[in-house]
Structure formats: C-alpha cells, structure tokens
Amino acid sequence: MSLTLLIEVFVTLFVIMDPVGTIPIFLSLTSGRSGAMIRRAAWQAVAVSFGVIVAFAFFGQQILEYLHISLPALQCAGGLLLLLVALELLTGKEEAPVVTGETNVALVPLGTPLLAGPGAIVATMVFSKQVHHWGAFAAVALGVVLVHVALWLAMRFSLPILRLIREGGVLLITRIAGLLLSAIAVQMVADAVRAFVLGQG
C-alpha cells in the first residue's frame, strides 16, 4: 500500500470536509433534539456522505467519458472550486445551511452537500484516477474510510469537543484548514496545466 497516497488522500479530504469545523454547524442543526437522535444523525450523515463519495469514486469516470470531459479539465475545475472554498475558510464568509423542522438534517444538508460536497467529490474522482493496482486502491479506500471515521467521531462527541477547544479553537483550525486547502488547490491547477501543456488533456 502506498503510504504517501494514503496521507495525501486523508489530508486532502480532511481539510475539505473539515470534521472540526463541522461541529458548530452540526450542533446548530441538531439543537433541541434528544441525545439518541443526535447520535443517529451523526452516523446517518456519515453514511450518506460515504455512499456519495464511493459512488462517484467508482462511476465518476464513466460520467466524465459520457460528457466528453478530460481528467485535467476536471482537475483544473476542481482546483479552482477548492480554491474558492479555501478562500471562504480563510475569510470566514462561509454560510451555514438553513433547514426547516421537517427536513432530515442527516441527509440534507449534513450528508450532502456539507460533507460530500463538490470539492470532496472532485478530489475523490481525481484520486481514484490514480488507482492502477491494489496497493493504490487500498490507500485511497483507507484514506476515505479514515476521514469518515474522523467525521463521525467529531459529530458524535461534538459537545465535549466544542467545550474543550471553544469557538476560538474552531476558528483557528478552520483558518489553518483553509491555508492547507488553498495550497492543495493551487497544486491541482498546476498539475492540470502541466497535463494540458504535455498534451494529456
């Protein structure tokens, strides 16, 4: 198994899906609900996110071929999209989703698009393109699983975590995640441009 690919997948998806930054939003969306319902919402949201990510990892390439989109084009678009997300994290202008009382928050907006959003989907599709042997497959699969475990742990123990790091800690981690994500986004765009120049797009 490729340890480098595993770390790259985990770090990229971690900063995109932002388990720690999800805590305040998760608490606001599940406020007033019982402990059992909050725990159920945590695992349901993670299950929905995991299902969406896996579906695009396996069938995303077929969708690209049907639409006649090259991987470098997708990678460049994904990099620009991630850069916008990173700028929102850095400037603090991201908007929390609003739901009505009848909506199952575990499905929408938690599972998607908050967790399994466009950025995570594009990043997963780019990584799945690098799978040419079982070692790479194991690295990508384990990276996706570990990120979703981190998401579940963050939401499952959201109240104690928030009391421990407080709002200032969440803000600090969000800014650091934005900085890392912006670097990843620029690298994705640079790789896409290099592929276009070499005639691979």
Please identify the structural class as seen in this structure. mainly alpha
Largest sheet: none
| Topology, number of strands | 0
Q: H/E order of the elements?
A: HHHHHHHH
Radius of gyration: 17 Å
* General form: globular
Count structural domains: 1
Supply the number of helical segments. 8
Query: Whole-Å distance between the termini?
Result: 28 Å
Proportion in β-strands: under 5%
Which runs of at least 5 residues are low in confidence (pLDDT < 50)? none
Concise summary:
By secondary structure, the protein is mainly α. The protein has helices spanning 3-17, 19-29, 35-67, 71-91, 106-115, 118-128, 134-156, 158-197. The two termini are 28 Å apart.
Description:
- By secondary structure, this protein is mainly alpha-helical.
- It has one domain.
- The chain is built from eight helices and no strands.
- Helix 4 runs antiparallel to helix 6 and helix 4 packs across helix 8.
- The two termini are 28 Å apart.
Structural key phrases:
201 residues; mainly alpha; 8 helices; 82% helix
Topology:
Elements: H1 3-17, H2 19-29, H3 35-67, H4 71-91, H5 106-115, H6 118-128, H7 134-156, H8 158-197
